[in-house]
Amino acid sequence: MAKVIEETGLRNKIHVFRDRFHAGEMLAQKLKPYMEYITNPIVLAIPSGGVPVGSVIAKELGVPMDLIIVRKIPVPYNTEAGFGSISWDGEVKINKELVTQLRLGDEEINSAIQKVKSELDRRMMRFRGKRPFPDLKGRSVIIVDDGLASGYTMLSAISAVRKHSPAMVIVAVPTGSKSAVELVAPHADELFCLNIRDTMIFAVADAYQEWHDLREEEVVGILRGFYR
């Protein structure tokens, strides 16, 4: 069970970060005191929103960054919500309780999974090309996203990383719902979440003063500083 490190003064507040880069700066400052205990660290950012956050953390801490590509499986009639997630290696995680509540049938579920798998393949080529995945054995892996809503995307990322025998798995996110933090914490070794919110309605965007869905060109531009 991960120890959860938060910024208690930010609990249940909104608009606490200027943008994703500012959130990355704040997370990096929170992580710095722990770096002497971390073995051979690497940042793995979840695109798209995790890339600007992760890029700042990697630069501030002086560690390499790469990507871990995972995607939520969207609810058919509400693409902002998800009922599970898929990692780049094809592992599927389903929120069975939510699927039951939504009364989703096998055909709807399988159709959504196949669409996401196709999108994952496309994004792998767009963002990583044919670059080999980094060797994570014995390394401390810091998985970064711009927030935890349901937590299922992060669960897929953690599960995929664990297969590579890392020394430890650290989750670092600027914001997260209390329920998502509680879901993810048992699967990580450390969990940094500066802005935890225990509210009826949660949106990652509410933590930011400036928010937009990143265009793929923006992500590729940030990655040029790491992929040479």
If you consult CATH, what is the topology of the largest domain?
Rossmann fold
Which class best fits the helix and strand makeup?
A: alpha/beta
Q: What number of domains? A: 2
Low-confidence stretches: none
The helicity comes to: 25-40%
The residue-averaged pLDDT reads: 90
> What is the overall number of helices?
7
The major β-sheet equals:
6 strands, parallel
Provide the succession of SSEs. EHEHEEEEHHEHEHEH
- The number of strands is 9
- The oligomeric state is single chain
Question: Would you mind describing this structure in some detail?
Answer:
The chain has helices spanning 20-31, 50-61, 96-102, 106-127, 152-162, 178-184, 216-223, and strands spanning 3-5, 42-45, 65-67, 70-75, 78-87, 92-94, 140-144, 168-177, 190-197. It is globular. The chain folds into 2 domains: 3-70 and 131-223, Rossmann fold; 72-126, no CATH class. Strand 2, helix 2 and strand 3 form a beta-alpha-beta unit. With 228 residues, the protein is of the alpha/beta class.
Which helices and strands appear, and what pairs or packs with what?
Elements: E1 3-5, H1 20-31, E2 42-45, H2 50-61, E3 65-67, E4 70-75, E5 78-87, E6 92-94, H3 96-102, H4 106-127, E7 140-144, H5 152-162, E8 168-177, H6 178-184, E9 190-197, H7 216-223
Parallel strand pairs: 1-9, 2-3, 2-7, 7-8, 8-9
Antiparallel strand pairs: 4-5, 5-6
Helix pairs in contact: 1-2
